[in-house]
């Protein structure tokens, strides 16, 4: 038999945005419920060293930070469900959300914080070095490759921006692209071509990542030509995959307003969505910054806006 739960605030998704929203909502005595999703803690659970989250003098671990946020949310009164939402109905009042285990939530407000995922190359060796040389976020991890050789894989705006950012730290940045021209905006390409630290390898794809699997540590990338299938390799300490992100919004398709890339659209300087009482925070609506600290900030805003909505509509 399905269990029905009434709540002022339902938070869908964990991670920095979801947990922060939960902390603020609980402290406002709104008694929020949070459904973690398939990957509790979000992208930070696959991030090893975190050096740019405020408040910590020493390097911390991503999974540890998420566990601390979870514990804080619990201690101030959040009900956390290790489950995932399979359907939502924003046309009803209150909103209805059902989970895989059979829970049925009836919520006066909903905060969506399901995040986004970086696209990966999906080759076996990539998994071995994720967090140990392979990253999908130059802003997060570029500092760790000071005075080292790194590579960026991709050809769009994100790849070029990542490559340019990495020149602030790395001694050399090699951009690897499968075609003979970039898809990035012309102004970004001009900056890239003029940068003396950047080398571009055209018409190549990544066949394999190699290195020390005991430590582990990335040492080189095996490349394959898209024109003649010949193979080559480059030695690098780091590789940044920059082929785009996908927001986790399939659950909300045709139920809430999104942009052409399926990121949830919110009002300017707000987390309010096209549906009154539904808010979106973190990478699910942010395609530009994608940082834990900005996600946490948006989680705070979402909770405060939910509190205000409830006060005005009680």
Description:
It contains seven helices and 19 strands. Helix 1 (15-27) packs parallel to helix 2, helix 1 runs parallel beside helix 7 and helix 5 (157-166) packs parallel to helix 6. The strands form five sheets. Strands 1, 2, 5, 6, 7, 8 and 19 form a seven-stranded mixed sheet that branches. Helix content is 25%, strand content 29%. It has helices at residues 15-27, 62-75, 124-129, 138-141, 157-166, 186-194, 292-312; strands at 4-12, 33-35, 49-50, 60-61, 79-81, 85-89, 95-99, 104-112, 116-118, 134-135, 149-153, 172-176, 198-201, 204-212, 217-225, 231-235, 238-241, 245-247, 278-280. It is elongated and about 65 Å long. The protein is α/β, with parallel strands linked by helices and 314 residues long. Strand 14 (204-212) and strand 15 form a beta hairpin.
Nutshell version of this structure?
The chain is an alpha/beta fold and 314 residues long.
Which SSEs are present, and which pair or pack?
Layout: E1 4-12, H1 15-27, E2 33-35, E3 49-50, E4 60-61, H2 62-75, E5 79-81, E6 85-89, E7 95-99, E8 104-112, E9 116-118, H3 124-129, E10 134-135, H4 138-141, E11 149-153, H5 157-166, E12 172-176, H6 186-194, E13 198-201, E14 204-212, E15 217-225, E16 231-235, E17 238-241, E18 245-247, E19 278-280, H7 292-312
Parallel strand pairs: 1-2, 1-8, 2-5, 8-19, 10-17, 11-12, 11-17, 12-13
Antiparallel strand pairs: 3-4, 6-7, 7-8, 9-18, 14-15, 15-16
Helix pairs in contact: 1-2, 1-7, 5-6
């Amino acid at each position: 038999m399905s269990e029905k739960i009434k709540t002022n605030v339902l938070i869908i998704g964990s991670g920095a945005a979801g947990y922060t929203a939960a902390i603020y909502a609980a402290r406002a005595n709104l008694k929020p419920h949070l459904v973690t999703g398939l990957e509790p803690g979000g992208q930070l659970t696959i991030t090893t060293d975190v050096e740019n989250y405020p408040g910590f003098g020493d390097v911390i671990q991503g999974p540890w930070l998420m566990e601390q946020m979870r514990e804080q949310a619990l201690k101030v009164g959040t009900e956390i469900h290790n489950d995932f939402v399979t359907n939502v109905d924003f046309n009803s009042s209150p909103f209805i959300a059902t989970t895989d285990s059979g829970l049925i939530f009836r919520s006066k407000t909903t905060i969506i914080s399901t995040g986004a995922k970086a696209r990966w190359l999906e080759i076996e060796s990539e998994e071995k070095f994720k967090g140990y040389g392979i990253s999908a976020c130059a802003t997060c991890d570029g500092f760790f490759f000071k005075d080292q050789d790194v590579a960026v894989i991709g050809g769009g705006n994100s790849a070029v921006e990542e490559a340019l950012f990495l020149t602030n730290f790395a001694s050399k940045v090699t951009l690897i692209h499968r075609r003979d021209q970039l898809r990035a905006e012309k102004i970004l390409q001009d900056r890239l071509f003029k940068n003396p630290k950047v080398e571009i390898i055209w018409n190549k794809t990544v066949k394999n990542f190699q290195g020390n699997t005991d430590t582990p540590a990335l040492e080189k990338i095996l490349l394959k030509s898209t024109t003649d299938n010949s193979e080559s390799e480059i030695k690098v300490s780091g590789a940044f995959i920059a082929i785009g992100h996908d927001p986790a919004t399939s659950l909300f398709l045709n139920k809430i307003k999104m942009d052409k890339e399926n990121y949830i659209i919110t009002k300017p300087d707000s987390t309010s969505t096209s549906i009154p009482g539904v808010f979106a925070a973190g990478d699910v609506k942010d395609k530009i910054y994608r940082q834990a600290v900005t996600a946490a900030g948006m989680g705070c805003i979402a909770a405060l806006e939910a509190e205000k909505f409830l006060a005005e509509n009680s």
